[in-house]
Amino acid sequence: MNHFVGQSQAVQVFCNIHESMTAVVINVDTPYFGVSDHAGHVSIADVPDGRYTMHVFYERSTAEALKSLERVVTISGALRSIENVRVPENPDVTLAHKNKHGQDYVPPPSSGYGP
After folding, report:
1. What pTM does this model have?
2. Integer angstrom CA distances of residue 41 from 18, 67, 100
3. What residues are paired with 24 via a beta bridge?
């Protein structure tokens, strides 16, 4: 069986200066992947007919929730779309982290401007 989105590995990247600046880099072993637009729609072009395993990633979901969204998808000449997938957001998922020295970030100094 081919993989629709492939076995992915997500790596979190953090800024050592700005605690709130984060990124996620995902490595997939397939040319068939997509990134959702602002409305949540995903389009993956030129997928050949076949059976694929679709995986979903969202940084604010738990691994268990994402695993439950995996499904086998069959793509054929007439069938080129799948049903909607609702990805749950978990407000308890946090990207809190320490700086490169393993310590909490130092709050920025007051600029002396404003109230």
Report:
1. 0.66
2. 31, 20, 36
3. 12
The 10s digit of each residue's pLDDT in 58-115 is: 888 888 888 999 989 889 888 778 888 888 877 776 667 777 788 888 877 776 665 5
Residue 52 class from Cβ within 10 Å (0-12 exposed, 13-18 middle, 19+ buried)? buried
pLDDT of the residue at 5 = 46
The pairs formed by 93-97 with CB atoms below 8 angstroms and a separation of 24 or more are 93/59, 93/60, 93/61, 93/62, 95/12, 95/14, 95/22, 95/59, 97/12, 97/14, 97/19, 97/22
H or E element at residue 22: strand 22-27
Chain centre to alpha carbon of residue 101: 27
